[in-house]
Description:
By secondary structure, this protein is mainly alpha-helical. The chain is 71% helix and 3% strand. The chain folds into two domains: 22-324, ABC transporter involved in vitamin B12 uptake, BtuC; 335-419. A two-stranded antiparallel ribbon has the order 1-2. Strands 3-6 form a two-stranded antiparallel sheet. Strands 4-5 form a two-stranded antiparallel ribbon. Helix 4 (62-76) crosses helix 10 (199-209), helix 6 runs antiparallel to helix 7 and helix 6 runs antiparallel to helix 12 (221-247).
Amino acid sequence: MTDLSSTGRRLPDRLDNPLKSAALSWESLLVLVALAIFLANSFASPYFLNPWSLSDLTFNFTEKALIALAMALVIITGEIDLSVASIIALASTLMGLALQAGADTPMLVAVGIGVGILCGAFNGFLVTGLKLPSIVVTIGTMSLFRGIAFIILGDQSFKGYPKSFSWFGQGYVWWVISFELVLFLVCAAIFYVLLHHTNFGRRVYAIGNNPAAALFSGVRVDRIKFVLFCLTGLMSGVAAVLLTARLGSTRPSIAQGFELEVITMVVLGGVSILGGSGSIIGVVLAALIMGLVTFGLGLLNVPGIVMSIFIGALLIVVITLGKAGVNPFKGRISRRQFWVGFAQVFLGFLIIEFLYLLTGWLAIPFIGALVSMYFLTSLFSRRWHDIGKSAWWGVSCFIPIVGIIYNLYCLGINEGDEGENAFGPEVDSKIWRWD
């Protein structure tokens, strides 16, 4: 280090190693998390490693991930779009009307994408033209678009889509590689180049960091935001085509709750909810993690209500960590601090596993993943050491609550004749429990 005594500042002798910076990035942590979840799913279910099961996994996130690519750019500029799921519902409904009118496959695709673009342009006009807050606008259009779908369809549904149309959501390009996955990878590459290697992407970052400064620098802020809302509408229209083709029917409740999962993917991918930072690679990795988690839980017959609890909690935790705004890779811990912290975690493991035995809910794979997370985070830095302990205790206390809710859910749906009631089909209440 070079010491400047006159100013009291210390300047580095050399620039940071780019490989070291990449290894300590948020994206690297997401890669480790994805690998850990993949291994956990492999041990948790014997069906997970089947090639066709892995192919089905891609259907679990590609439609949402396509929207997340465009949503990432919108959030980087400091805006948000909560109407994406309702755009899917409206686009799917109008595709159903076009089908009833005798439209062929190209026309159905054009209707779905066209409706998405128009809805996005409407959002963009209200935000940039009338200067309304995007969160207020898109909450309103979220109800507006889905309300129109309910008015048109009511409790009915459209069916009978042609096989050529169904291929978009059910077809395979080669072996187990689906068309949806190929389309997502192509779009991810396009968005990566657009955001990270073009002047347009640099303007997006500039708007997110300081829109007033960007405006005085000659950046057309309103025009770029309008284009981004149209882009989000476009990707929502594409998702509507894929989802409708995969399901083979149209209902007004289609894609309900997609907006929460899309925003979770974006924020989990490292995009700041306040704007100004983020990467497409992080969003792609976050989409993969979300797909791995939900598909793994689905293989274990965990009901959707528990998945919703998990996704909501994950969104809150990630936003809280991002709000801290501190580099987590500063200041390494000593060997003594590491082992003292590990002793605390191990003690917590014994206590909480005892609680699991009392409640009858077994979740040892989760505990193993959490202990592994503690090891990994502690190896990086003091702050990750503290975050690792806090996250371990927080999630460990949260898991028994989810287990109790899940067991109550199972007891409720197994009370009727033959184990069925208004909640749906029978679910095995012994899953993840001691026999």
